[in-house]
Amino acid sequence: MRRAATVVAVLLSAGLLFGCAPDESAETETPVPDPSSPEETTSPTPTPTSSPAERAVADMSVEDRAASVVMGTVATTDVTTLNDYMAHGYGGFILMSENVPATADELREVTSSLVVDEGMPPLIAIDQEGGVVTRLPWDDAATAQALQSLPASETRAAFDRRGELVADAGANVNFGVVADVPADAGSFIAPRALGTDPASAAERVTAAVEGEAAHVFSTLKHFPGHGPAPGDSHHSIPSTGMSLEDWHDADAVPFEAGIDAGAELLMFGHLAYTAVDEAPASLSARWHEIARDDLGFDGVMITDDLGMLASSGDAAYADPVANAVDAITAGNDMVLMIATSTPDTAGDIADGIAQAVEAGELPADRLRDAAEHVAALRLESAE
Q1: Spatial CB neighbours of 274, under 8 Å, sequence gap ≥ 6
Q2: This prediction's pTM
Q3: What Cα–Cα distance (Å) separates residue 171 from each residue in 100, 106, 215, 267, 324?
Q4: Where are the beta strands (DSSP E) in the chain?
Q5: Does residue 320 carry a pLDDT above 60?
Q6: Rounded to whole angstroms, how far apart are CA atoms 37 and 338?
Q7: Which helix (H) or strand (E) element contains residue 255?
Q8: pLDDT of 107-116, one tens digit each?
């Protein structure tokens, strides 16, 4: 796609474009540079892009691109405050309990206020798993824990209903499909998981993604899986020594199934698989490479809440801005920030990402690629 401009230029100079042949009888003179004149400089011909997302991002400044890969939140239902917040150009907003009024009609007013540009609406996300993690009190679909013992067709029906409710509320992304395989019934993730073993989890994850497909974008979480890593990533960085080969045979299975079913987002957990990478998966270039190259995921890769890293007790992750820069560098397309954040945190993160690009710490192409992935999904949501 990027060779198109060069090919056109060559054909024009040869007179071969539009069927015109060069006039061989015409005399031409080779211009002789004037050494007394300053050297002429010309800007390179703009390279045409092949997709609406590429065109949209090409028109953005570095600062705009940085804001577009941030998903934040502010605890209010005041529509003016929310609209002013999103006017900073953030690519996403996550609805927390503090953003959800008593009725669906009132919630639609909230979500409408988050849309600054109808041609490129933000990714408006919600954690609507059903059961333990619920933001919509009126969600009457079966919970994840109940679905574990029911046929997969029931999971599809439940997430069809759940996706309908989320979309009706004005959100376009559900962080609702838990693809983790719990190690045992005592795991904190067990009541939220859709299956108790790789095979049953994969079957129900597929059904959940298919059920949501007509309504909202689906998210698989928490990659590469909480199962083998004991502990709650809200308060620590769970770790495991599981090998990559063993992971492929077990905990990878539901994620592969969800990707094959068409899930549009993949959420990276703050989990350290030390045999693969000492860093948490959310900050690991290796795990992002595995998702793209081994599992074939081509959608939006997003972190779990970066505020959880800051709350882990590990001093290395105390700075959410540094975490965000590292997350985009590692391969995430979007960073999510909730815990410990203020109304200024998203802006601080966006500024930090832009400054990292200017300083050469974050490759400009990496930010552009991230912004294009996010833009593609935002543009699709406008259709």
Answers
A1: 239, 240, 241
A2: 0.86
A3: 11, 13, 10, 17, 24
A4: 70-72, 92-95, 123-126, 173-178, 217-223, 239-240, 265-268, 272-273, 300-303, 335-336
A5: yes
A6: 58
A7: helix 252-261
A8: 999 999 999 9
Adjacent-strand bridge partners of 72: 93
Q: Which residues are catalytic?
A: 234, 304
Q: Does residue 271 surpass a pLDDT of 80?
A: yes
* Side chain identity, residue 60: M
| Comparison of pLDDT for 345 and 15, the residue scoring more | 345
Angle between helices 364-382 and 320-330 (to 10 degrees): 90
Decide: 113 and 77 in contact? Cβ < 8 Å: no
Q: Please name which of 125, 108, 109, 113 lies closest in space to residue 86, comparing C-alpha atoms.
A: 113
**Cα–Cα distance for residue pair 156/145, rounded to 1 Å:** 14
- Cβ neighbour number for residue 241 with a 10 Å cutoff: 12
Confidence bin at 7 (pLDDT 50/70/90): very low
- CB hemisphere CA count around 41 (13 angstroms): 2
User: How far apart, in Å, are the Cα atoms of 219 and each of 10, 41, 151, 177, 381?
Assistant: 45, 48, 21, 6, 15
Q: Residue 267: beta bridge partners? A: 302
Distance of CA 102 to the CA centre of its chain: 29
C-beta of residue 218 within 8 angstroms of C-beta of residue 176: yes
pLDDT of residue 235: 62
